[in-house]
Amino acid sequence: MTDAPSLPLYPHRHLLGIRELSPVDIELLLDRADAAVSISRQPEKKTSTLRGRTQINLFYEASTRTQSSFELAGKRLGADVMNMSVASSSVKKGETLIDTAMTLNAMRPDILIIRHQSAGAAALLAQKVGCSVVNAGDGAHEHPTQALLDALTIRRAKGEIARLTVAICGDILHSRVARSNILLLNALGARVKVVAPSTLLPTGIAQMGVEVCATMAEGLKDADVVMMLRLQRERMAGSFVPSVREYFHYFGLDAEKLKAAKDGALVMHPGPMNRGVEIASEIADGPQSVIQEQVEMGVAVRMAVMEALLDPRRNRDRHSA
Amino acid sequence: MTVTVFQHARIVDPSRGIDETGTIIVDGKKIAAAGASALNQGVPEGAMIVDCRGKAIIPGLVDGRVFIGEPGGEHRETIASASLAAAAGGVTSIVMMPDTDPVIDNVALVEFVLRAARDTAQVNVFPAAAITKGLEGREMTEFGLMREAGAVAFTDGRRTISNALTMRRALTYARDFGAVVAHETQDRDLASSGVMNEGLYASWLGLPGIPREAETIPLERDLMLARLTRGAYHAAKISTEMSAQAVARAKGEGANVTAGVSINHLSLNENDVGEYRTFFRLSPPLRAEDDRLAMVEALRNGTVDIIVSSHDPQDVDTKRLPFADAADGAIGLETLLGAALRLYHNDEIPLIRLIEALSTAPARLFGLPGGRLSPGAPADLALVDLDEPWIVSEAGIRSRSKNTCFEGARLQGKVLQTLVSGRTVFSAQAGN
């Protein structure tokens, strides 16, 4: 990006969660991301900001969307990107996360992107390697780039985040997306409501800076943004909710329920969607849906994050440690 | 036999309710006299005299819950290495849990432990045997034969017996042999995949929580069965106010019930987990500060009888993992006394009550010879500077595993010398 050097220096070395970010940090990343959107819209999409830098994607959970978004972001910045396919690697032979991290670290990457099923995995990795680490989702803990891309999508559509009412609906209990979004939206001054059956709410939710609503009608009232969350298949039948049918009846987003929100409210979903479970197709593909924009913003946000972390103005002796 | 006279010491002997300055005369393997008037007969001829001014002598600690890796996990801890750690911590007797590989669930294993202890250990090691074969919660082990062989209690270690009938029969059958059944309670279904205390903190970390009820529900069941069977039941490691209340109620109704608490649950709370620090992953999980305070109160008022280290050595292969994948447990033999003395220095628990819960009460509970400084008792004791400050460091840990919750902690109260049957097994001066 041509104007990147004029932006303030980003103060963190890793992106492990939204919790560690100040509102200023968040706005800075969103400003950078805004600038990055135009790069992806040019015919010539490749820049040289990260030329010569090595990015490794270490994905312990399958994720087409996030992994390809990070890969594309790195390539558009000119970095060399390597994807570690965990399913066919030594991880399957019982190598621990830390041993894998040490091995990769010895190859001297500049940035490691990690997705792992265990909460805290990204933080653990960051303690053991000499390069920057980006958390691409760790268990039910955080998914910071998702929250940033959601915020960018909202900000571009609504102008600013402060004073907006955002309803987050669905499986809050198991959702890292919900946690990161609750933190980010609160940091930027939005009003956050959550809607879910009580079996899918974490203990202490009322102290997490949200209003807890039992019905979609209550939760979507006055909402400028409706964020739907994915309900994992294994949680549908009997364990947390009795059936898909009952879940959709009460918590699936359809045209009728969406009427409770403000006119022109944005409909968002981090994907992949379960059509007919948490969201009706007509809504997912309807005029209020910004689900495709979210995907586009995802690439921009990840470019911005990697650029900010690997800012050449920062000392470059981190490998010498 | 050699005679040693420890003079001018603060003598704390809960078995006789004594906390006074005086003299202890150790004659061979036994205590000949102890107290303010111990020198009435004068110093025996040829005795070695130790001036203990400003220091205290307590009966050696009796740790009722110690996990050791031998047999099967010697890379984590052996009986020998655990005993060195114990000696350095002023612990002169340990009750060893049966969670070994193979499990201590038959006479041969009980004998193996006693033999290994006799040949390699610096302190007294008493095996506790499994309640059920292979710790599987189904078939009862040979309580009688193992008791005769030297098992001092029966417990399924880290496991909870989910079948109420199995528990009822164990309590009933153990009664015939005068054996204590010690049980850690955690409902497997309710705890599910939980890895830390359920609450706001776990929710933000994205870690599945273990509700307090997972401990108390099976505990309430056990307490009812203890009343039904009149068996001797020991709630091995309680951590919540609800559990303390349940135990107090059962005791009030005359049930033959006792309870223990780990030093970790008296010293730490869930916030110590910080950013996924796996050394603080314990079972039961570290609870909220209110629960910790309730445990201190339960210790003070006698609802909780004993303090244990719940020493549980874990290696890097089980701890250097993401929090949810790591093993439970922390070592504790070397820090048990220092951490417990915080309660004394903070004026939360009187010293004599603290030493009772660390030594006299567990000795009585498990029918062991130590835990007292009365004439005729085995000379198992610790010479302690109650006020000396020290900082726990990994480098100084004698245990083969280093998974301590107290790394970097400032403790006050240091063991200077430990005697087991009159023999010095640890001396701070010797630097061993």
TrEMBL record, chain A:
GO biological process, one term: amino acid metabolic process
Associated pathway: Pyrimidine metabolism; UMP biosynthesis via de novo pathway; (S)-dihydroorotate from bicarbonate: step 2/3
Binding-site list for carbamoyl phosphate: R65, T66, R115, H143, Q146, G271, P272
Catalytic activity: carbamoyl phosphate + L-aspartate = N-carbamoyl-L-aspartate + phosphate + H(+)
Pfam families (alphabetical): OTCace (PF00185), OTCace_N (PF02729)
GO function term, MF aspect, one: amino acid binding
Keywords: Pyrimidine biosynthesis, Transferase
Sites where the protein binds L-aspartate: K93, R176, R230
Function: Reversibly catalyzes the transfer of the carbamoyl group from carbamoyl phosphate (CP) to the N(epsilon) atom of ornithine (ORN) to produce L-citrulline.
Protein family per UniProt: Belongs to the aspartate/ornithine carbamoyltransferase superfamily. ATCase family.
Oligomeric and partner information: Heterododecamer (2C3:3R2) of six catalytic PyrB chains organized as two trimers (C3), and six regulatory PyrI chains organized as three dimers (R2).
Protein name: Aspartate carbamoyltransferase
Source organism (scientific name): Allomesorhizobium camelthorni
UniProtKB/TrEMBL annotation, chain B:
UniProt entry keywords in alphabetical sequence: Hydrolase, Pyrimidine biosynthesis
Keyword Metal-binding: no
CDD domains: DHOase_IIa (cd01317)
GO cellular component, one term: cytoplasm
Matching InterPro entries: DHOase (IPR004722), DHOase/Allantoinase_Hydrolase (IPR050138), DHOase_cat (IPR024403), Metal-dep_hydrolase_composite (IPR011059), Metal_Hydrolase (IPR032466)
EC number: 3.5.2.3
Gene Ontology terms, MF aspect: allantoinase activity; dihydroorotase activity; metal ion binding
GO biological process, alphabetically ordered: purine nucleobase catabolic process; pyrimidine nucleotide biosynthetic process
The keyword Amino-acid biosynthesis belongs to this UniProt entry's keyword annotation: no
Pfam family for this entry, one: DHOase
Domain Dihydroorotase catalytic as annotated: residue spans: 54-241
NCBIfam families reported in the protein's UniProt record: PRK09059.1 (NF006558), pyrC_multi (TIGR00857)
UniProt name for this protein: Dihydroorotase
